[in-house]
């Protein structure tokens, strides 16, 4: 793969063969990333304009953003799902013809979502995804999480890396049920709790609040703040049961006594 800088934040990328493109797909492109070979060092989240092509074929335009420096290469996250982009590169006509544009490619200034929610379910698909996700590096999982499809999210929710779970919360298509699973996770972090509390549609859900209060990883001040928002029956259960902290149990007991 050869990358040529064509502007301050623009690169032309050429793959010498379909085999080279396939290798890059397995390594990075398949999860929406690209290791862009260049000595140029650009700030994180710099929007890029990319022109990608197989040798001898027309260019395919795509937007991307810088997400890291790999030393001799930039780690890049593509805007939009990688599937249509890969198909467009492979289907591009000879270079003499009009350039092909990925149907899902977006301008570098705009951020896009991840893979389609449709067609990513089923045992066979899940097994294939599980094998692929198991072989991803931590950085690749971090790149995938904010744009992952439904089945990919279900698998990533089992990750033991708190940063991967935090990245999942940045996925615009994450469901309430998935947020509840994060709230119940034994790998819950302060940053995750803070983000959930700041997101009104999540913290407005009772199941999310209950999961946070019962999770010992939730900082006590946050749990105490949520306690008054729980139904009386839930507060009584906390007062009688094994609360995550003595402070939480005492606060629940006080509220129960106040009901009398």
Task: Provide keyphrases for this structure.
Thrombin, subunit H; single chain; 7-stranded mixed β-sheet; 13 helices; 260 residues; alpha/beta
User: In the CATH hierarchy, what is the superfamily of the domain at 1-112?
Assistant: predicted glycosyltransferase like domains
State the assembly state of the protein chains: single chain
- Rounded to an integer in angstroms, the radius of gyration calculated over CA atoms is 23 Å
Mean pLDDT: 82
Kindly describe this structure.
- There is one protein chain.
- The protein has a domain at 1-112: Beta Barrel (Thrombin, subunit H).
- The protein contains 13 helices and seven strands.
- The chain has helices at 18-27, 82-91, 123-134, 138-144, 150-156, 162-168, 176-184, 190-198, 200-203, 206-214, 220-226, 232-240, 246-259, and strands spanning 2-7, 10-15, 33-37, 47-54, 60-69, 73-78, 100-101.
- Strand 5 (60-69) and strand 6 (73-78) form a beta hairpin.
- Helix 3 (123-134) packs across helix 5, helix 7 (176-184) packs parallel to helix 10 (206-214) and helix 12 (232-240) crosses helix 13 (246-259).
- The protein is elongated.
Short description:
The protein has 260 residues and is of the alpha/beta class. Helices cover 44% and strands 17% of the residues. α4 runs parallel beside α6 (162-168).
List the helices and strands and how they pair.
Blueprint: E1 2-7, E2 10-15, H1 18-27, E3 33-37, E4 47-54, E5 60-69, E6 73-78, H2 82-91, E7 100-101, H3 123-134, H4 138-144, H5 150-156, H6 162-168, H7 176-184, H8 190-198, H9 200-203, H10 206-214, H11 220-226, H12 232-240, H13 246-259
Parallel strand pairs: 2-4, 5-7
Antiparallel strand pairs: 1-2, 3-6, 4-5, 5-6
């Amino acid at each position: 793969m050869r990358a040529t800088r064509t502007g301050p934040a623009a690169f032309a990328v050429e793959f010498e063969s379909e085999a080279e493109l396939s290798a890059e797909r397995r390594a990075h492109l398949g999860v929406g990333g690209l290791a862009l070979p260049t000595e140029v060092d650009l700030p994180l989240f710099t929007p890029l304009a990319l022109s990608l092509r197989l040798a001898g074929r027309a260019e395919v335009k795509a937007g991307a953003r810088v997400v890291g420096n790999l030393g001799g290469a930039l780690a890049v996250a593509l805007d939009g799902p990688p599937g249509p982009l890969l198909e467009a590169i492979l289907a591009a006509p000879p270079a003499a013809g009009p350039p092909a544009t990925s149907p899902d490619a977006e301008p570098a200034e705009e951020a896009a979502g991840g893979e389609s929610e449709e067609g990513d379910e089923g045992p066979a698909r899940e097994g294939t995804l599980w094998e692929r996700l198991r072989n991803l590096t931590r950085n690749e999982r971090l790149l995938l999480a904010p744009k992952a499809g439904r089945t990919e999210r279900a698998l990533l929710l089992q990750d033991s890396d708190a940063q991967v779970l935090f990245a999942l919360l940045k996925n615009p298509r994450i469901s309430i049920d998935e947020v509840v699973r994060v709230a119940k996770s034994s790998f819950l972090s302060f940053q995750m709790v803070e983000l959930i509390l700041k997101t009104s549609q999540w913290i407005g859900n009772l199941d999310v609040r209950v999961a946070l209060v019962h999770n010992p990883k939730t900082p006590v001040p946050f749990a105490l703040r949520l306690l008054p928002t729980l139904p009386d029956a839930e507060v009584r259960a906390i007062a009688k049961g094994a609360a995550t902290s003595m402070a939480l149990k005492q606060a629940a007991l006080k509220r129960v006594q106040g009901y009398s």
